[in-house]
Write a structure and sequence with these properties.
This protein is α+β, with helices and mostly antiparallel strands. The chain has helices at 3-61, 70-82, 85-96, 132-136, 140-148, 178-214, 216-230, 239-323, 328-352, 367-384, 404-420, 473-483, and strands at residues 101-107, 113-116, 130-131, 154-160, 170-176, 363-366, 387-392, 399-402, 426-435, 438-444, 487-493, 497-505. The strands form three sheets. It has a five-stranded mixed β-sheet. Helix 1 (3-61) packs across helix 2 (70-82), helix 7 (216-230) packs antiparallel against helix 8 (239-323) and helix 11 runs antiparallel to helix 12. It is flat.
Amino acid sequence: MSLRVRLVLLILVVVALAAVALSAVELETLVDLLTTDAIERSNLTGQQVSALLRDHIERYSENYATPQTLEEVKALWNDIVADDAQFHNLLLQMMANTRSLLEINVAGESGMILASSNPAVVRTSIERRENFDTWGMTPWYRRTLDLLGKRPDWEVTLGLGVGEQDKPIFTIQVVTSSVFLRDALRPQIVWLAGVSGSAIGLSLLLTMLATTRALRPVKQIEDTIDRIAQGVADSEEPDGALAKEFRAVESKLNLLGQQYRGAREDASELRHNVDLLLQRMASQLDVATRLAAISRLTGGVAHEIKNPLNAIALRLELLRARLGDPDPELSAEIDILSREVLRLDRVVKTFLDFSRPLDVHLQDIELGVLASEVTEFITPQARLSNVVVDFSAPTEPAPMRGDSDLLKQAVLNLVTNAMDAMPNGGQMRVRVEKRGDKLILEVSDTGSGIPPELRDKVFQLYFTTKPKGSGIGLAMTYRAVQLHNGTISFTSEAESGTTFRLEFPGNVRHA
C-alpha cells in the first residue's frame, strides 16, 4: 500500500471517528434528557397522588367516627380509599396527563391494591418492578440499549403512613412503561442517525476528494520514482547512450525535488484544513456540552416551579369540586386562576424547550385585547412602583393569527423590563396601532435608556444588566415574535427612555 493511499485512509478514519464521537455526544444528551424528564414526571406524579390521597382521607374522615387506635385508623383509611370511585377516576385522569405512565396503584400494608388507574388490578397483589431512579443512574449507553430492547417496566414508590410509624399504611406505585419511552425515543434516534449518517458520508466524500486532489503531486512523484527504479536503458545501447540515460535520471531527480517541495506545501495546506475542521467539530462538541448543562439547569428550576404549580392546579380542581355549582362570579375567578396556572406551566416548559423546536398553537386573537389584559394585570404592581401606565388601542379590531400565551408572555416581558428601568417611578406607555395590513405594538418607558455599547446584546440569551436578572426575557420575546413572522426593534436615548416596537402581519377578515 502506497504512502498516498495510507495518508488518504488515515484522514478518512480521523474524520469518521470525529463525526461518530459528535453523534454519540448528541445521543447521550438526548437519552439523558428523556430519562431525566421521565423520572421527574414519575416522582412528581407520585407526590401529587400522595397529596391527593392525604387530602382525600382528611376530607372523608369527617363523615366517620374518630378512630381510637392505630388499627382503627388503618381500617378507616383502607375503607375510604377502597370504596371511593371518584378517587379511582382521579388516578386515571392523572395518568392520562403523562404519556409515559402505565399505571398508578395505591396498595395497603398487605400488598393488596386498593385503588388503581387500571380497574383490572384492584384487589390483586401489587407487582414490583425495577426502581426507576436506580435505572436512571446507569450509564447512558446501557439505558439506550434498554430503551431500544425489550425491557420490563419501572416503578417509583412512595409511602404514606401515620406519624412516625415505621411501616406506611399505603404504598403509592407509579409505573412507567418502557414501550412508551421507546416509542418517544425511536423517532429521534432515527432522525439523529439519518443526519449523522448523511454528515459522515458527506464529510468522507469531501475529505476523499480534497485529499485525492491535494495529493495528486505525490502520485506523480511515485510514478517518476517507479520509472527510474524500473530503468529505461536498453542493454544493446552503447555506453554513451547509458551515460546519456543517467544524465536524464539526474534531471528527473532534480524535478522530483521540485515536485516534493510542492507536495510538502500541499500537505501543509491540507493539514491546516484538517485542523480547521477539527476545531469546528470541537466547537460543536463544546456547544453540545453547554446545551446539555443548560438543559439540566433549566430542568432543575422547572422541577422546583412545577411542583407548586401542579399543587395549585390540583387544589383549584378540588375547590371547584367542593363548591359544586358556584355563582358565576366565583366560577369566573376560579377560571382565571386556572388559565394563569396553565399559562405559567407552559412558560416553565418554554425554558426546557428553548433550544428545541417549539409548537405554536395559532388561533384568531385580538392584539389590542391581549395587550389590554397584560396592561391591566401589571397596573397594580406599577402603582406600587410609582409608575403611571398609559394604554391606547384603535377602536376598530386588530385581528391576527397567533399563540395567545406566547404573545402574552412576550408583552409581559417588555412591560416588566420597562418598570424595572424606572426604579424611581415614571411613565410607561403601551400602544397598539393598525397600519394597513400591519399591526404595531409599542412599549415605552422614561428610564435612563440603554447604553450604546450594550444595544447589540439585548436580545442575546442570558445577557442581562440587572443584578438578579436571568437574561431570558428579551430572548424569549425575540423568539416569540420571530415565530409569528414579526419583527422587533427598539430605540433608546440616554435619560429619555426606551421604546420597543413589535410589528406583526395582520389577519385580514373578509365579509
